[in-house]
Structure prediction request, 220 residues.
Amino acid sequence: MREAKGAETYPDRTVLMVSGGIDSMTVAYFLRDRCKYLRMIAFNYGQFDFGRALQAVNWVSVELYIPVTIVDTPRSVQAYAGFIEQDYDGFPLMLTELSRKSARFTMEAGVYAESIGYHAIAEGVNKDDLERYVYRTQVHRHVEEVMSLGNQFDFRVITPLIDMPKAEVMKLAHRLGVPLEKAWSCWDGKVRHCGVCQGCLSRKARFRDAGIEDKTVYLE
Prediction:
């Protein structure tokens, strides 16, 4: 099984973009001993399940002693391109989550990182994600170029999982001791994972494909 770029040297000051999901939680555990000063940033753009995802983000922050900044941007997201919460497969979902480029938050995270003296951001995108976000690597490269302008350092966008399919990410998380039951995947806003939305179905499939016990409590 491939390792998540374990031999790579990571910048001391890195800001990790987190969503409360499996991938970003795995990267947090992966980078906590590889970056001397690791921080996290989470964006609230009005997504229906943000409250539950935020609980997962806060849990990681407390458990790993990683400071987290929450950025509220729902109005600006809705304004610049009409992104409003719409029905998708029976569940409300912000259309921005389906954008194939989704460059906005990567750049915002980069600007935030530079503003506090950090020279890198990290993201939990995996190999399978590139089938939907087909321009992701190009976005990362251009963000690096823009954020490096006028600076005496090369700004970096770190993606430790980008060469790993979802099943391998799950195995890495298991090896790192990530409590995956704490991660949030559901598109609904209930107290527990609903078990029937596409987020939950994908979550169940990831555990099954990786051969790892799923300790998540589902309503169905």
Notes: Residues 13-179 form a domain with the Rossmann fold fold (CATH 3.40.50.620). The longest strand covers residues 37-44. Residues 81-85, 94-98 have pLDDT under 50 and may be disordered. The first helix runs from residue 22 to 31.
